Each structure stands twice: as structure tokens, then as C-alpha cells.
Amino acid sequence: MPKSNETKDKKEIVNFLFEVGILAKTPRSAFYFMGSGQQSVSEHTTRTVYIGFVLATLEKNVDYEKIMQMCLFHDLAEARTSDLNYVHQKYTISDEHKAIDDLIKTLPFGDEMHKILKEYKERKSKEAILAKDADNLEWILTLKEQVDIGNKRAVTWLPSAVKRLKTDVAKDLGKVILKTKSDDWWFSQKKERIIRWIFY
After folding, report:
1. Which long-range contacts (CB under 8 A, 24 or more apart) does 102-106 make?
2. Dihedral sign, CA of 34, 35, 37, 43?
3. Per-residue pLDDT tens for 66-119?
4. pTM for the whole structure
5. CA 5 to CA 8: how far, in whole Å?
């Protein structure tokens, strides 16, 4: 009997891993209205995790592992509900709670995931607030990338996105994002690359 339960658990874990793959095929729907660009939920999640790590490192005295877990799981329900932007949400009811409840009850580590997501949604802990700031900073970075290629709609969307930031560390990063060209990282080593292109 224990062996069959273990086999069932592994089967559910594998199903979960296949389900997570759907996030790479689920588009972020705000781009429909922005007029240019595209991004999957998985792409958004990946950069959000990196941002969460950065915020935790800069903030100090926080549980960075918890922040990264919140960032990793924050849009997990969208594998089942899809991504609904603000216009969609006015007319569509998305039961993310049911989607998560249905998922976690199948997993041996479901209780841990539930605790992480519950804390994130409540936005009471410093970790939850930083994780949400990471989510918003990812959107701000994405908008800035669109601004830099001439998307005028993204220009009008940026101010409201920046206002969502709650922590000082995120607000400081937000200010720098607005002043930084999205390809600065590429041109920061321009001289070195020119030399490499010439001699290699």
C-alpha cells in the first residue's frame, strides 16, 4: 500500500511539472492592448524570481528563500485560469483560489505551496510585499523595454505602474529603471566588443 501511494505521488508530481509547462505557452494578455511586444507567463515569472532575489539582497533581514518561492508561484494559477488583464477582469470571473486548491490537494508538498501563496496574497509580511514589488518591477522593466522601441502606449502606462511599488528599495530601483535605457547593459562593454570583433 505505501508503495502505491508513493507511485501516485510521483505521478501527480509529474503531472504538476507538465502543467507548469503550460505557463510558457500562456500569453500575458496586456500586450493585446499595448500594440507591440509579447511575453509568456513563464517569461514574466522567471524575471520576477531574479528581481525577488535582488530585492531580498538589497533589503536585508528578510527570508530571501520565501520571497523567491512567492515570486516563483505567484502566477501559478494562470496555467488553469489564463492571464486576464484589467479589462478582462471587469467582465470575467476567475477563480484562482479554486485553481490552486484543486492543484495543491494532489501534491505531497501542496500544504507548503498553500502557505506560501496564502502569505503572498495577504500582503502582510515584508516578504510578501517585496514579492509583489518584484512582480510590479518586472512589469515596469517590460514597459520600459517597449518605451525604448517607441511604443507610445507604454509611455502612458508607466506612471501608474510605478505608483504600485510599496517598499523604498523597489521605489529606488523603479526610478533607476526609468532613467536607464534597456540596452545599456549591452553597450556598457562596447569598446571591448569592438576590439573582439576586430581581432577575432
Report:
1. 103/16, 103/19, 103/76, 103/77, 106/12, 106/15, 106/16
2. positive
3. 999 999 999 999 999 999 888 888 898 889 999 999 999 999 999 999 999 999
4. 0.90
5. 5
CA distance 83 to 189: 37
Cell numbers at residue 149, please? 522601441
Strands (E), 16-139: none
- Domain spans, the chain: 2-199
Topology of the domain comprising 2-199: Hypothetical protein af1432 (1.10.3210)
Contact present, 48 and 74 (Cβ < 8 Å): yes
Q: What is the pLDDT of residue 199?
A: 54
Q: Which residues contact 33 (CB under 8 A, 6 or more apart)?
A: 85, 87, 153
- List the chain residues with pLDDT less than 70: 1-4, 190-200
